[in-house]
Amino acid sequence: MAASSKVMKQKVAILGAAGYTGSELVRLLLRHPFVEIKHLSGTERTAGWSYGQVYPQFSFGSVITLDGERAATPVDALPPLCMTDDIDFSQVDTVFCCLPHATTQTIVSRILHRGTQHTPRVIDLSADFRLADVETYKHWYGTSHLAPELQTEAVYGLTEFERKAVRSARLVANPGCYPTGAQLALAPLVRAQLIALDDIIIDAKSGVTGAGRAAKEGNLFCEVTEGLHAYAVASHRHAPEIEQGLSRAAGMGNQGVIVNFTPHLIPMSRGILETIYIRCRPNVKVEDLRSCLEEAYREEAFVHVLKDPKQIPQTRHVRGSNHVVMNVFADRLSERAILVVVL
Length: 343
Ligand SMILES: NC(=O)C1=CN([C@@H]2O[C@H](COP(=O)(O)OP(=O)(O)OC[C@H]3O[C@@H](n4cnc5c(N)ncnc54)[C@H](OP(=O)(O)O)[C@@H]3O)[C@@H](O)[C@H]2O)C=CC1
Ligand SMILES: CC(=O)N[C@@H](CCC(=O)OP(=O)(O)O)C(=O)O
Hints:
It is a single chain. The protein is an alpha/beta fold. It folds into two domains: 10-173, NAD(P)-binding Rossmann-like Domain (Rossmann fold, 3-Layer(aba) Sandwich); 177-342, Dihydrodipicolinate Reductase, domain 2 (2-Layer Sandwich), CATH 3.30.360. It has ten helices and 14 strands. The strands form two sheets. The protein has a seven-stranded parallel β-sheet with strand order 3-2-1-4-5-7-6, sandwiched between helices. A seven-stranded mixed β-sheet has the order 9-10-8-11-14-13-12, covered by helices on one side. β1, α1 (20-30) and β2 (35-42) form a beta-alpha-beta unit. Residues 11-169 form the Semialdehyde dehydrogenase NAD-binding domain. Keywords: Amino-acid biosynthesis, Arginine biosynthesis, NADP, Oxidoreductase. Its EC number is 1.2.1.38.
């Protein structure tokens, strides 16, 4: 895509740029013809470093993208990391927040309540603004929300379902990793009333970058390699997020649908695979599920239903591509179906 000289570039700040989500954003935004990365922030640990010092792959010249193209902006143009407090937000159009849970509430609140004429839009990648219900947040995150008024204002940023609202939102809460796959696969089927709402089992596996870059004993190479384990069984905070999305799709408000969700950590660096077991409503066939999903994503650039009904999605379908690929299969028991989704 060629950058038009008439289009004003969006001035962007990425907070928490030294983390994994921050680095993924830098990689994507360097390619974007209408974005100028003005600020990258970190803590005392990384403030003052060049981005190549934080991530060696951003050290030299132009980034060659996965498609073999040159990025729109050379990495040399990236600013060094600074402290978040040193950013002048009156000069920024969009802030991407890639900060740990809870830290985000305070910082986003400060940015959006600055009381000046110009307030940037905020796109938050943490979980702080995803759950609309204040009590549900408190129950799952173990602490009261520090900016409840923003919690109700935030638009849940699953773009395929909320494109119009995302366009005009002041604060976008980006979905969690597991909820992205689960909701993309299930919400169209729920909306079309094709599946039972009391019998949804989501078995999910994630690569280790999903846990963030901060050092944690459980994520060390020797702890995760050549092994596989479930974690947060029946207690993962993504369950209420998925339930909120599916309840909304069912027209029930923020709650009502209950899912059984079990995540696993698998020894690969990135990617997620979710196997989802569902029960069809009476007289619904797996072909109906497939048609529904195909219709839902026909015009979408990043979500794909495999054309061959027998082909099983695998992480290699999406590796490093930011796409989501799914397929749906009939179980041996006729009323059941199995969805496989990778992202
Ligand atoms: N990893 C993933 O796949 C996904 C993560 N998320 C969510 O996104 C958020 C970021 O996750 P992730 O990138 O994995 O986390 P990481 O642990 O990889 O990185 C977080 C970064 O935040 C920085 N940081 C902490 N406090 C501040 C501050 N006050 N100002 C500036 N920088 C700060 C740290 O910087 P420094 O290194 O300089 O100390 C650290 O590098 C989390 O809320 C996470 O739950 C969402 C979707 C997917
Ligand atoms: C492998 C792994 O540890 N994954 C993280 C989820 C990462 C993510 O996307 O979720 P949040 O933004 O809600 O943190 C976890 O299970 O806590």
